[in-house]
Amino acid sequence: MSADADCDADGDTDADADSKVDADAIERHLRRGVDEYGLFRWLDLDFEVLEPGRVAMSVPFDEKFVNLTGRTIHGGITAALIDTASGFALRSTFERPEAASLTTTDLNVRYVRPARDDVRAAAEVVRAGRSMGVTEVTVTSTTPDGEERTVATGGTTYRIFRGEGDE
């Protein structure tokens, strides 16, 4: 915030309004990325939660995602969802996500049980540093009896390449 920011009677500054505009711009940028990027369209990704440092995304069950047995979602889909939700969660902390890029340096997945329905990843940023970011993720799916259960947990580490204006 600049030293000359105007304050209203409650002590709120114009920067507070600006941060809302910035949050909206960040959300638009991230949603556009899902709509325009081929893999994300193929997965039919959908945001359920998009907040600074926290993202939940879902992938609907589709026969194209199943293992050879045809009954469970391939683990690679789960891993891709962990990586993707993590990246969006980390990007949601940037002032200008369009001016930065990420490279996954570590992706870990712990499979707990098979996923037989839609899958949902809830990602949270553990640390968003200047050049490295770390996330934790829980992936859930609905069981045949209708219960939401954890199917995998995991996390990522990213190398962050920040652009000008996103310090």
Distance between the termini: 13 Å
Number of domains: 1
Output the CATH homologous superfamily: Hotdog Thioesterase
Count the beta strands.
6
List low-pLDDT spans. Answer: 1-21
Main β-sheet description = 6 strands, antiparallel
Round the mean pLDDT to the nearest integer and report it: 81
The helix/strand series, from N terminus to C terminus, equals HHEEHEEEE
Strand content: 25-35%
Give me the Rg, rounded.
Answer: 18 Å
What does this molecule look like?
There is one protein chain. The protein is of the alpha+beta class and about 170 residues long. It has a single domain, classed as Thiol Ester Dehydrase, Chain A. The chain is built from three helices and six strands, in the order ααββαββββ. It has helices spanning about 15-35, 40-45, 75-90; strands spanning about 45-50, 55-60, 100-110, 120-130, 130-140, 150-160. A six-stranded antiparallel sheet has the order 1-2-4-5-6-3, covered by helices on one side. A hairpin with a 3-residue loop joins β4 (about 120-130) and β5 (about 130-140). The longest helix is centred in the first third of the chain and has 23 residues, at about 15-35. The model is unreliable at about 1-20 (pLDDT under 50).
Short characterization:
28% of the residues lie in helices and 35% in strands. The radius of gyration is 18 Å and the shape is globular.
What structural keywords apply?
167 residues, alpha+beta, six-stranded antiparallel beta sheet, globular, disordered N terminus, hydrolase, PaaI family thioesterase, EC 3.1.2.-, PAAI_dom
